[in-house]
Amino acid sequence: MARKSYVGTAVTVSFDPEVCQHSGNCVRGLAGVFDSRRTPWIQPDGAGADEVVAQVGRCPSGALRIEPREPSA
Ligand code: SF4
Predict the structure, then answer these.
(1) Count of beta carbons in the 10 Å neighbourhood of residue 15
(2) Protein fold of 4-67
(3) Ligand 1 geometric centre to CA of 16 (Å)
(4) How far is the CA of 5 from the centre of ligand 1 (A)?
(5) How sure is the predictor about 68, in pLDDT bands with cuts at 50, 70 and 90?
(6) What residue ranges do the domains of the chain occupy?
(7) Any residues with CB less than 8 A from the CB of 30 and at least 6 apart, and which?
C-alpha cells in the first residue's frame, strides 16, 4: 500500500511510487503541479483542475490517479 493522496482544493491526486515508470511526463508536462524537487512533490492546486486531470491521464503507468472526493457540504 504505497499509494499516497495529495489533496487539492478542486482535485485530489494519488501516486504510487511502486508503479511509476519514471517517464517524467508529469514533471515535464505540468511543472506547477508535479515537481520532484519540492515537498510535497504533487501540489494539485498548482494548475487548473482540467489541466491536472488531463496530465494525470497522460501518465503511462497508472501511478497517478485522480481520486473521487466527497462533495463539500
Ligand atoms: S507520468 Fe506517471 S510514470 Fe511518468 S514519472 Fe509521472 S507518475 Fe511516474
Answers:
(1) 21
(2) Alpha-Beta Plaits (3.30.70)
(3) 9
(4) 15
(5) confident
(6) 4-67
(7) 46, 47, 51, 52, 55
